Amino acid sequence: MNKHLQKLLFVGLLWLANFAYAQAQGTVSGKVLLQKDKQPVDYASVAIKRLATDSAVVGSTSTSASGNFSIPNIAAGKYRLYVVFLGLKTINRDFELTAAKPSINFGELLMEDTGVTLKGVEIKGETPPVVVKKDTLEINASTLKVKENSVVEDLLKKVPGVEVSKDGTVTTQGETIKRVKVDGKDFMGNDPLLATRNLPADMVDKIQIIDEMSEQSKFSGVDDGNREKILNIVTKNGVKNKGYIGNNTVGYGTDDRYDVNINVNRFDKAQQLSLIGQFNNVNKQNFGGGIGGGGGRGMMFGGGGNNGQPQPGITTTNAAGVNFADTYDDGTQFNASYFYNKTSLFNTNNTFTQNFLSNNVVNNSSSDLESTTDRLNHRLNFMVDTKLDSATSIRIQPNISYTDNAGNSMSNYVRNSLVGNAVGTQSLVSKSTSPSVNNNLLLRRKFLRRGRTLSLNLSTNINDSDADTYNKNPEVVTAPGGAVIKNQNLNQQNDNNVSSFNNTARLVYTEPLSKTLSMEFNFQNGYIYDNRDRKVYDFNVLTQQYDVINTTFSNNFENTTWTNALGFSLNKNEKKYNWNVGVAAQATNRKNYNLSTDAVLKQNFINITPSAQLRYNFSNTKRLRVDYNGRTNQPSIDQIQPIIDNTNTLTLPIGNPDLKPSFSNNLRVFYNNFDFASYRTLFVGAVITQTFNDFGNQQREITSSEDINKVGKIENRVVNVDGNYSANVFGSLGLPIIKGNKLNLQIDGGLSNSRGTNINRDGVENVTKNIGVRNGYKLVTNMDKLDLIAGVSGRWDHASYTIGETTNFYTFAPNIDISYLFPGNIRLQTDVTHTKYAGRGADYNTSFTQVNGYISRQFFKNKGTFKLSVYDLFNESLGITRTANANSIEDKNFNVLKRYFMFSFTYSLSTIAGMQTQGRQGQGQGGFRMGRPGGM
Question: Which of 416, 730, 743, 780 makes a 20 to 30 Å CA pair with 898?
Fold first, then answer.
């Protein structure tokens, strides 16, 4: 009986405790309306923050279509309510819940219609850490804690769902950032690195990730599918204050290593002026378009990007640039930039290549190369956007570039095959100049009826190239039995001149059918002209000149392509969703003229190009986006000119004038869910491409009976192939470990699958299937003194061939970057990356650990920082890649920058009122930081 009574009492007490707990929980509710017309604000973000030392967010939601919200289970205590919607002034209300009054209804909450516009970005009122609105994700930079003297790239590394590779490439939601704006104005043309790696983090108030439509689509309101991911950096008081800000560094180290960086930015209301300079020999390139590897189709693996792969070679850089932007009283926008860079790359590598040919024949080759490449580049960009009258506007955007390249390389190689074995050396000395002029003109006209527009977009590109290459290539080929088949001493000059002109005109007319439905009619005309005049001269021992024309490798060829496309689309815009469905018929007329043989080939094609887009907002934080389009791709002049390039010691590429345009079906699906209150983030996406008449290679190994001068080499003739596809599925998940965004776990992963097709000499398809799986885990802090980014990433790659071997290889790379700010403004930092390669060739399965670190101290009221740093402390860094192409596997080992010590001084310039020059860490409150942004 006593046992039953005890159980009964226990259950009763448990019920009373639950009842008491339930009684102690309350509900916060209300209705959010626009102040100007009392219309409900749907999908506004609502959060409740405890007014205590931890300032934790205890509840959040989004308003319904009627503007109502309700947040249950709020315990007794003092709180602050926040209501946020991008473009409207934030509402905050303090309140208290007690046992006597456990719930509260705020009634009608009215939001003022002021806030953010991209044209002249202005933030009014208070803002949360993250705001999602239409095609923009906005992050409050004050919630991201980085070290002193940091740049924008350091902020991006802490944004959930954003990846920054070793070369500075920024990707988010499966797409690469193509441009950066500052306060809504283009910065230094189309080079994101000039902003992310130069602009100081201290000047940033907010980072906006925008899925931006083309200028013509933004005007017409109808999405043409030509979107790109961009960053917009909103500066602290960037539209209010006048002054200067920037970080300037000078450093010198062992082995005569040096590093000088100059960055000065002047702001005066809407006017911006930036000066950038960089001079070093430590492989720092805070800009794009420099000397780099890559190229070719296929998949490169082995630790690139976030896996810790060092940059190939040793680069000496001298670069400087200036950017100016202003918006005038009449609304005219003007932007201009000039950038100069001069780089010199010293590179050594050894390469082992396997080519899979017919009947399981494998052609192997190995080479050792040493090269120096000098590059000089000038870039000049302009943009003017102005109104001609109240209904007509024009945007003109010319870009001028000039590039001068000079290269010198020496290689030793061995080529083994069933038809013979070759041993040779090659010296290549090259010199080229490449001027380029591009212009984009957009003429826009609005009519009296809202939504009725007419616009004309003209895009013109002129690209020329003049290159001379001196090729000295002595080679001995022996038969499998040892008899000498060929003993040549090739000594040639290649004079290659290319002229290219491309013009596209797109006329768009939009007509509203209702308040939410519109129709677009479009016509597009394209003209492409390419001419390549390739002359190869043999060395004349009598005259000691290159004056004997080699007709086998010389050719003058031109291609003219006209395209005309007529289409229409329907566009539906609702509060919760929008969709667009369109179709166009495209006629292509192409003429290939071989001036060397006087042969003419004319081709005509008709293609139907459909398109569709859907954007659905489940709530203010949950979005679905689906894009589809079908597009034609014209072959390049390289792919159609029927002439062999004999400067490659392994392959002989040759064009095919009979090529047809390829046609691809492209599908992209993206879903994101961002809970700004808890900092939980989820993003998943897929990109799938299927290509008909794709461009592949018909491969054959040349025998001695076919051509004694080419024996043992592989001829690659471009042909159309079917069955090619690529599919990538990826996602990222962000989870808070410590509330207030102080410690987050970021998980990312992806699966890729592709199919490539080549054809062997017997007409049999050799299909290459690639599968890649990647996964990564990362801990990120946003604390006042401790800075930590630690994680592990790995990748498994599989490549199978119809003819040839199957390969599996792996990359594993744990890393940690940690620093702590000690009393006296002394910071101690180290970053350690361990990289392990497996599944490659015997000389390429290895591992290494790279350890970098520094100790620094701030002086002169925190405006100056002295730093003693070390790069690659244990001198272990290695450069290794494996590339699985169609029909081939290539392993490469290359030289990298090794250990050095450096002493440097950084001066932080800031004369903008309200801005501080000390490190970002240690300033303000972390976590869910509401209230006025820094400096505002």
Answer: 780
